Amino acid sequence: MTATAPAEPVLEAGETLRARVALDLSPDGRFATGELCLTDRRLLARDGGRDGWQVWPLRPDLTLQHADSGGLAQLSLHDAHGRLALWRFTLAANPPALALLQAFERAQRRLASPPAGDEEEPAAADDDFAAEPPERPSTWVLLRLWRFARPYQGQLAAGFALTLGATGAALVPPYLTIPLMDDVLIPFQNGQAIDPMLVALLLGGLLLSALAAWGLGWAKTWLLALVSERISADLRTATFEHLLHLSLDYFGAKRTGDLISRIGSETDRISVYLSLHALDFATDVLMIGMTAAILFSIDPALALVTLLPLPFIAWLIHLVRDRLRTGFEKIDRVWGEVTSVLADTIPGIRVVKAFAQEKREAQRFREANAHNLAINDRLNKTWSLFSPTVALMTEIGLLVVWGFGIWLVSRGQVTVGVLTAFIAYIGRFYGRLDSMSRIVSVTQKAAAGAKRIFDILDHHSNVPEPAQPMPVGHLKGEIALQGVGFRYGPRAVIRNLDLTIRPGEMIGLVGHSGSGKSTLVNLICRFYDVTEGRITADGTDLRRFALADWRRHIGVVLQEPFLFFGTIAENIAYGKPGATRAEIVAAARAAHAHEFILRLPHGYDSVVGERGQGLSGGERQRISIARALLIDPRILILDEATSSVDTETEGEIQKALDNLVQGRTTIAVAHRLSTLKRADRLVVMDRGRIVETGTHDELLARQGAYWRLHEAQQQRHTGLGE
Fold first, then answer.
1. GO cellular-component terms in the record (predicted)?
2. CB-based contact 32:4 (threshold 8 Å)
3. Per residue in 478-514, pLDDT tens?
4. Domain spans of the chain?
């Protein structure tokens, strides 16, 4: 990839440039140009898509942190309050970035002016790229859901207006008790006649307010429930789609059950919070605010007494909130362990039964479940003390109001009707206050769930899309690897590898386990990006192509073919969903799968179980070959395609592969060297390097690494035959 000439930073008088890094990624992980420079006074950064430089004068509280993994790296600038900036780049820019980091640390030590003597070197950054500086969990993470709520802001505004109206209607009845008590009931006890019109008017007002509160409450609950379900559905979809676009190294560090739990139960929890508890919280806030205003309008002194328990309750909520949030995050992680046991055991039930390990798996689940129970018990201990304490404070507050109110009535400062209305309002006030304290629990649950969801959404793929992708167009199929290197964290897997594969050529990759064969295939598919050098297709760097566009030209047949739950026809057409039945049958015929498919009860419409249960390994493999044939790829990857089947089935699969490789650039990985005799060229790998290339006969004649592999296999087969 060609880079534009960097713009020079404008230096101050006497300022010296110490280090610079040419950046090749944007902060969101896309290919882009930029630059990071360090002087003896400042740190300067420039985004290639924008004019001007960002500047940070050096000061003692600044820190620069480095992390790298899976082909990408980053530098992040921090001060005492948090992260100030983030720069991402491929590992091609890592050496100058490390040099800049060292120069920055030397400059910071000079600023701090440490005492003479040996200095302790700072600890190395975490090698996990995803592990950015930890952020303290916060309820404010729920505000990030506004991104998903924005499309429904009109409905949310209508729901808020309905909530306001319903709350106002619910506050009318206590106010009407004042004239009922002072103008009707108490005068009647003193011998005055009851005015029927006044009673009818007051009772009618009570009925109308009740009907209005019911109608408005139903409308706002229905409307906001619809909106919250759509928000959670959008959140679930966005999380799953983002997950699909993450690189393979992310999935290697995550458990399936944990990811399923995040997308499933966490989004459900957020949905329940938005549809019920967030609405209740908004209603409670409105009710408390409006009730407090009414109380002060009736009698300020009595209203002040009513608010006495509030500071203590607020302090208690603040004290318990962090414990609850931390506890719910632990519960989420432990629940992920429970679902991971299920995700491991149920798909592997055949292996469990084959090795009679039912008791062992039951014990694993029992232990995970017991751990979940223990965490819940510790959290419930905190919550069980908190909720009754709040209830006790509200009851004490109510008693204080009764006592103070009776004293005011005895002195003639308020009427019985006013005190009755006050008690009614206080019942609503403290009831809502108690409800708000209970919502603390579900709010922390939702915040913990939202944090786990945004942990996925905030993760960037280590295989970035180009900012301006080039179309692949008509692909001839020439692949060239030029000085390719790759490492997983600190471990180098591929080292300075050069290889050119001609259009239509079939090469075989051979070597001991761990020699780098599968990694090389993963790099060609761009499941990972090279950390050194480049891979080109017809002379164009693969990183210039959009991922989906490039992979559309690649057919992959794996050692363990994966079939989805569905029909045979749906599995064959997985890579080309719009394929006609004639195209599906033609691909199956070419893959030598047509005959056994017709023997199935419903032919091509027969449903295969999860992961192809009900079919033999050879049958699943031929369906995967038909799947690759149907998309008519220009480049074909065969990764141990015949290693797990018997000799007779291997012959059937080999016939299908002969049809598949014709006219295509093919890269075949195999441990059985006999399956690669048809290859135009064999490439022998050892410890991430190519040690030999040539045909089967040429390599045997050299009696080198390939010959030793061949002899070892022959001896094993002879021993098995004996």
1. plasma membrane
2. no
3. 999 999 988 876 678 888 899 999 998 888 888 887 7
4. 17-112, 148-298, 505-511+546-719
Neighbours of 25 (CB within 10 A): 22
Quick check: do 17-112 and 148-298 share a fold?
A: no
Topology classification of domain 17-112: PH-domain like (2.30.29)
CA dihedral 267, 28, 463, 246 (to 10 degrees): 0
Tokens of 614: 């009900």
239-283 pLDDT, tens digit per residue, is 888 888 887 777 766 766 677 777 877 777 787 777 667 767 777
**Beta partners for residue 541, in sequence order:** 536
The string of pLDDT tens digits covering residues 531-586 is 889 999 988 999 888 888 888 888 888 777 778 888 889 888 888 888 899 989 98
β-pairing, 532-537 vs 681-686, is: unpaired
Please give the DSSP secondary-structure letter assigned to residue 665.
E
Output the CATH code of domain 148-298: 1.20.1560.10
CA 75 to chain centre: 22
Helix (H) or strand (E) holding 700: helix 696-702
Topology of 505-511+546-719 in CATH? Rossmann fold (3.40.50)
Please state the pTM of the whole predicted model: 0.62
Query: C-alpha angle with apex 330: 327 to 336, nearest 5 degrees?
Result: 145
